Amino acid sequence: MGLFSAMLAANPREEAPFVETWSPNSDEILGAIGPESRAGRRVTPDIAMQFSAVYACVNLLAKTIASLPLRMYRTDRATGKSFEAPEHPLNDLLEFGPNRWQTAWDFWAMLVMHLLLRGNAYAEIIAGPRGFADRLEPIHPDRVAVERLDDGSLRYRINDYKGRTRFLLQDEILHIRTSIAPGLVGISPIAYARETIGLALATEEHGARLFSNGARPSGVVTVPKTMSDPAFERFKKEWTGLYSGLQNSSKTPILEDGAKFEAISLTAEDAQFLATRQHQIAEMCRWYDVPPVMLHHMTGTSVWGTGVEALMLAFVRNNLNPWLACITQAVRRDLILAPQIYSARFDIESLQRGDSKAQAEFFSRLVLNGILTRNEARDALGYNPLAGLDEPLTPTNTTTSDNLPGNGGGGSSAAHGDDAGDVHADAPDTSEEIAA
Question: What is the pLDDT of residues 217-244, one digit of tens each?
């Protein structure tokens, strides 16, 4: 595919005129927001991970998505039904081994973290024995700038770890971007949540400094007369060394020359930074669209217990599915040569299952109604098949057109002729005999 694009573009790997260039940290994206928050804390994707809520959101989404198998499916054009296609060369690449040094879990966890923290995830498509996409080598987003050439195609300028500048064409790279994309690249929630994260980090630093000074203000020391500069410096040095810090918080100060100490108590309003920290966690959950309870942030009534199944289903449908669609559609665009026939899907069955009781009732209904065979149910639950369980059951209160009266069905009176009616007519009243 790279050769085909090279034939269409004029010197695509050399410096060529282009319309616009975007990179995750370019001034076009960060200029209006600024690299430093108003709280005075510089916020970058790596610094943001020091805030526990950011780490928890990113960690939850990355690990969950990485644990889901990504498989290839083939669509039968005649029936429109889809079937797994393990024979497709991309299936092994996506589900098991994208490259020589990463497992599929490593690869997708890395790309999802890049996507959530920087708004973009890149992987170079390298040809080999399995076809044009034999390996997928991840590229750090900070090393990539996207250019639109005069012909409308994209070109990726990469500064690799060896200090070289390389150019990759659009069909030589897998590019996953967030839905919020003002140009050729996506923007992560970190860029928009800069003030939220900056305030959270500043509040955390304030709490740390507060406790490092004994968890309360030092108070006021008054002296009856003016101190000389050497005496003042000596007093300040001794006071700081003897009575500041958590390790000295219980010591009783000994004053001289009539000096008096008046402590300043920490009021409830002064301690509101704790409530501020709680609020910042909830704010970060909104930025990443993750339920706070999924981060073990439980305020008020907990929803764990009877509501855990509904919570997980809502998390999968409302929060996780958009990210899965973002990835699979990028795979369809950049990796699948026949998207009308083949598609890639994440298997989310394990996330949608209920507890043991709910699973038993679910599969029992499917088996008893003939929707699944007993062996299909056993396979879904992880059990080995058994002989004689490959035929679907027929419910006793339902029938088919073959068994309707007049169609020769074994259960109709027509199958027995007129004698069937005589048998019923001459039959004794069973209920009266039992009563007698």
Answer: 456 677 777 777 887 788 777 777 666 6
